[in-house]
Amino acid sequence: MDLYEYQARELLEEQGIDTPRALFVEDEGQVAQAAETIGMPVVVKAQVKIGHRGQAGGVRIAQDRNAAVTAAADILPMTIHGHRVNGVLVAEARNILHEYYVSISVDRASRDFDVLATASGGTEVEEIAREHPESVKRLHIGALEDFDLEAATRMARSIGFYHADVDQAAQILLRMWRCFKENDATLVEINPLAKVGDPDDEGSKSLCALDAKISLDDNAAYRHDGWKRFATARDADPYEVKARELGLHYVHLNGQVGVIGNGAGLVMSSLDAVSFAGQDQGTGIQPANFLDIGGGADAEAMCRSLEIVLSDPQVASVFINVYGGITSCEQVALGILEAMDELGIDKPIVVRFDGNAAPEGLRILEEAHRSNIHMARTMEQAAAQAARLAAQDKESSK
Amino acid sequence: MSAFIEDGAPVIVQGMTGHQGMTHTARMLRAGTNIVGGVNPRKAGTQVAFEVDGQTVDVPVFATCQDAVATTGAVASVVFVPPRFAKDAVVEAVDSGLGLVVVITEGIPVADSAYFVELAQRHHVRIVGPNCPGLMTLPDEGHSRGCNLGIIPDGIVSRGPLGLVSKSGTLTYQLMGELADIGFTACLGAGGDPIVGTTLQDALEVFEADPHTKAVMMIGEIGGSAEQDAARWAAEHMTKPVVAYIAGFTAPEGKQMGHAGAIVSGGKGTARDKKEALEAVGIRVGRTPSEAARFMRETLSTL
């Protein structure tokens, strides 16, 4: 789960990392008050879980109260790269002297934790890595290692922090690590980690986390009270919300063929097959969702799955792809029929079974004589048929 | 000898007395796996009776892995322990001198997996998984029993010249089914989590060293760079042909597709990148599982 900036800041502050004073505001009416409280000038920042929001106009500096209100009024209704803005952060504008970048993340390849840092921060690290690869330092923290102040100081030196910043940088690295470990994060990124203050007053200078990105490990939610405090960070897609309540692995996409299968890999493969079929048939038909029904594809699970999938009005046909491993396709077939009766389904459904009791399952469906159940022998044929049926529906409803 | 484990090797099951553990221990026994014990501190000293081919097999329950290993001489363990207890269970298995620990459990925090995977590496213990269907080896000639460690359905395939490694469970069964007439030496579910004990590359290394494996089917999916790493290693070291399939071309950025590790983030880990990396080193990638199976048949016909 990715957090919004205002939530990520909370976790950094809990570790004692300095951040600019700021208030999170969801309502335009509260912006003036927030700006007064923080003091001018302020930065008004879109709260949205996607990068490059600055270029998209999602970050504005306001010199006075009215400018802050205008900026918020512009930003609040925005959708940036397909992500709806969730609110704005009204933050104290700090005088930036220099920008660093630091992140800690799970390194899937080396199977430990990766510290990525550069003394030339500010933009997206991918860009820095492309333009100045030599300036990006990559260090590791082992999964069995204890990362202490000494190790953090060594790391701060090798990253290339200015001599005057090394001690403070080491403290920040250590606190970032604690933030990462204690919260079961998979990413803690500060960009920029800025040197702020009065250029002529050495004593006023300090390092401050101007922006932060944190992702949390969903598998560890049980250790953190289910991340209730960050509930708003969950996706607001209404279908996904409902599916989560029902305990289903569902991802809403934007196509016309609903897809239900067992096993994440097989479902992904089914989505690809539908998309390829749409391309091959020249209709541009796409999958409407990902839904992994899991191991026990019984009648109840099938019923709930079909209900969710068909509640999306864009769905014109459904492709059910089950490989019977431990689960028998006979049981799945009975589940489909039961769900169809209960929900009164009239949209076309294409079923493909393989594995455990596949012929028996298909026979059950055949003998039920439902005109809207279609059976296919292979995954490709089933996907092609589901895509064709969805295209016909689209055509006839024109 | 099969890849990964001796035929008929003695195996224990951690979490055997839970629902999943009971169901799959019964299945593994019926598939011929030599299960010699279970671990559960609260039920130590008892026995669990399983029906296998009309006969009753009593499997003793031990308090710890150490006890189980000392009494039975087990060399491998299968872990069905729920996520919140999985780290302690795997650490105990690694410390008890087992050589192979197959972790089926889905939903283990990645920090816990990172810990036990690193610990296992230091102790030279192989971990398979977590969040995987397990490992199945088919018996070599002269042996009646291979090993079915996990939840891979028995009876789909028999012994043959192929090795299979996969990030996905049902796609493993799908490809096993498609290539059932050719047969396998071993089928390994690497797992769908961001950190796993045996990567695609690790599996290629074992299959390359196994004299009975002639070609390898590799099934990948979006997320991470395990496919690219495997491609790079294969290009430099692999003498045996590899055919691949990758799932998730239609997966959108930033969305977890079922598996914890199946996510494209920051434009990285896309199916397209993986396909290109594999094809760049001469590994054919099927557009569908069936096409991958056909490529494998074509490849075998040229050997």
UniProtKB/TrEMBL annotation, chain A:
Residues 9-216 form the ATP-grasp domain. Its EC number is 6.2.1.5. Mg(2+) binds at residues 191, 211. Substrate binds at residues 262, 325-327. InterPro entries: ATP-grasp, ATP-grasp_succ-CoA_synth-type, ATP_grasp_subdomain_1, SUCC_ACL_C, Succ_CoA_ligase-like_bsu, Succinyl-CoA_synth-like. One of its GO terms (cellular component) is succinate-CoA ligase complex. GO terms for molecular function: ATP binding; magnesium ion binding; succinate-CoA ligase (ADP-forming) activity; succinate-CoA ligase (GDP-forming) activity. Binds 1 Mg(2+) ion per subunit. Its cofactor is Mg(2+). Keywords: ATP-binding, Ligase, Magnesium, Metal-binding, Nucleotide-binding, Tricarboxylic acid cycle. Pathway: Carbohydrate metabolism; tricarboxylic acid cycle; succinate from succinyl-CoA (ligase route): step 1/1. The keyword Metal-binding applies. Belongs to the succinate/malate CoA ligase beta subunit family. PANTHER family: SUCCINATE--COA LIGASE [GDP-FORMING] SUBUNIT BETA, MITOCHONDRIAL, SUCCINYL-COA SYNTHETASE BETA CHAIN. Succinyl-CoA synthetase functions in the citric acid cycle (TCA), coupling the hydrolysis of succinyl-CoA to the synthesis of either ATP or GTP and thus represents the only step of substrate-level phosphorylation in the TCA. The beta subunit provides nucleotide specificity of the enzyme and binds the substrate succinate, while the binding sites for coenzyme A and phosphate are found in the alpha subunit. NCBIfam families: PRK00696.1. Heterotetramer of two alpha and two beta subunits. This is Succinate--CoA ligase [ADP-forming] subunit beta. It comes from Bifidobacterium cuniculi.
UniProtKB/TrEMBL annotation, chain B:
InterPro entries: Cit_synth/succinyl-CoA_lig_AS, CoA-bd, CoA_lig_alpha, NAD(P)-bd_dom_sf, SUCC_ACL_C, Succinyl-CoA_synth-like. One of its GO terms (molecular function) is succinate-CoA ligase (ADP-forming) activity. Its EC number is 6.2.1.5. The active site is at residue 259. Keywords: Ligase, Nucleotide-binding, Tricarboxylic acid cycle. It is an enzyme of class 6 (ligase). Residues 4-108 form the CoA-binding domain. Substrate binds at residue 173. Pfam families: CoA_binding, Ligase_CoA. The keyword Nucleotide-binding applies. GO terms for biological process: tricarboxylic acid cycle. Pathway: Carbohydrate metabolism; tricarboxylic acid cycle; succinate from succinyl-CoA (ligase route): step 1/1. CoA binds at residues 17-20, 43, 104-106. It catalyses: succinate + ATP + CoA = succinyl-CoA + ADP + phosphate; GTP + succinate + CoA = succinyl-CoA + GDP + phosphate. One of its GO terms (cellular component) is succinate-CoA ligase complex (ADP-forming). HAMAP family: Succ_CoA_alpha. Heterotetramer of two alpha and two beta subunits. Belongs to the succinate/malate CoA ligase alpha subunit family. Succinyl-CoA synthetase functions in the citric acid cycle (TCA), coupling the hydrolysis of succinyl-CoA to the synthesis of either ATP or GTP and thus represents the only step of substrate-level phosphorylation in the TCA. The alpha subunit of the enzyme binds the substrates coenzyme A and phosphate, while succinate binding and nucleotide specificity is provided by the beta subunit. This is Succinate--CoA ligase [ADP-forming] subunit alpha. It comes from Bifidobacterium cuniculi.
